[in-house]
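WP5 quarterly update. Target: N-acetyltransferase. Source organism: Kitasatospora arboriphila. Length: 101 aa.
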Amino acid sequence: MHLLCGLGVNALGLHRIWAARSPLNEASARTLLRAGMTEDGRIRDHVFSHGAWRDSITYSILEHEWTPINGLRAVGTVMSDVEETLQPPGSLPGGDVPRGR
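Structure tokens (predicted):
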């Protein structure tokens, strides 16, 4: 989750990232809190599931609240490197493939 937040902040330039979980899913609560997210509140009757309306607990993290761990500050740079690596053989920078004559 922390890696996804880093991708959102660094590579995509997002200001706010949010998530929602079931009130029954405590494992998700721990994961979201460990990633640095803050519990925002409860959306009542948010999802209709298994014949009943269910609440959701929402979390968010703002751009200035995200702090890198284990070198994740460079997530945007890493993603650029990955994109270059995944280019098809013979392709040009930017993903263009040369046309035959």
